[in-house]
Amino acid sequence: MRIAIIGYGKMGQLIEKLATEKGHEIVYKIDSHNTKLTANLENIDVAIEFTHPEIAVSNYKKLAGQNIPIVTGTTGWTDNFDEVEKLIQDTGNRFFYASNFSIGVHLAMATSNYLAKLTENFPEYSVRIDEWHHTAKKDAPSGTALSFGREIINNHKGYKKISTEPTDIQEGELPIYAYRENDIPGTHQIKYDSEIDSIILRHEAKNRQGFALGAIKAAEFLVNQKPGVYTMNDLIKLPL
């Protein structure tokens, strides 16, 4: 594949290294300090975008207007998801979004969904989500933590909404606690707690390599698909 990397920070640099090792060609690298697209990109098969929520949607519009398939791992923009989905439909493009490209995270999410269904009939268990990331991460809670939360709500009738400032939790609210510490690639923990025991599901990334490889796999997958919006569920065929 001929790839454009939009956002050449730590993740973009790792994607370049691993994609090159897999035999792909990096045609464009848009610097992490200048990630808003202004020029047309030519002769590329797919763009991999890891930038900032403030400019992500603008980048999607620019790429979709050039009919360039888009893989994005930028989080914090999904309040505009309906707008982006319509953009992809109107332009007949292909778009792959994941808040987290780790295969292990999505295996953990499938397990969490199943556990949510099982515990729905046992109200003595309350649920909370905790997530830890490096201090450079812009959004809190993480997009992955929010995805875990939305999936729990979809599978457990006892929860109706996510609380991202969980100081006084009300009935039906699912609290998410976010922590920022140095040198943590990403850890997510879902805890089902009762007075007599706890069930803890935890995914801990050891480095960024799993995220970068997942993004490359998503790009390899996307270039062979029909127009539409795709997620990690489509890539790894989990029963979610």
Provide structural commentary.
By secondary structure, this protein is of the alpha/beta class. The chain has two domains: 2-101 and 209-236, Rossmann fold, CATH 3.40.50; 103-206, 2-Layer Sandwich (Dihydrodipicolinate Reductase, domain 2). Helix content is 35%, strand content 24%. The chain contains seven helices and eleven strands. The protein has helices at residues 10-21, 53-65, 81-91, 103-119, 143-155, 209-222, 232-236; strands at residues 2-6, 25-30, 46-49, 70-72, 94-97, 126-133, 161-163, 173-180, 187-193, 198-204, 228-230. A six-stranded parallel beta sheet has the order 2-1-3-4-5-11, with helices on both faces. Strands 7-8-6-9-10 form a five-stranded mixed beta sheet. Helix 1 (10-21) packs across helix 6 and helix 2 (53-65) packs parallel to helix 3. It is elongated. The relative contact order is 0.17. The model has no long low-confidence stretch (mean pLDDT 91).
Average pLDDT level: 91
How many β-strands, per DSSP? 11
The CATH architecture of the largest domain can be named as 3-Layer(aba) Sandwich
Kindly name the structural category.
Answer: alpha/beta
Count of separate DSSP helical elements: 7
- Rg is 19 Å
Biggest β-sheet strands, sense, barrel = 6 strands, parallel
CATH class descriptor of the largest domain: Alpha Beta
First CA to last CA: what distance?
Answer: 30 Å
Strand order of the largest sheet: 2-1-3-4-5-11
CATH 4th-level superfamily of the largest domain = NAD(P)-binding Rossmann-like Domain
Oligomer: single chain
Beta-strand percentage? 15-25%
Into which percent range does the helicity of residues fall? 25-40%
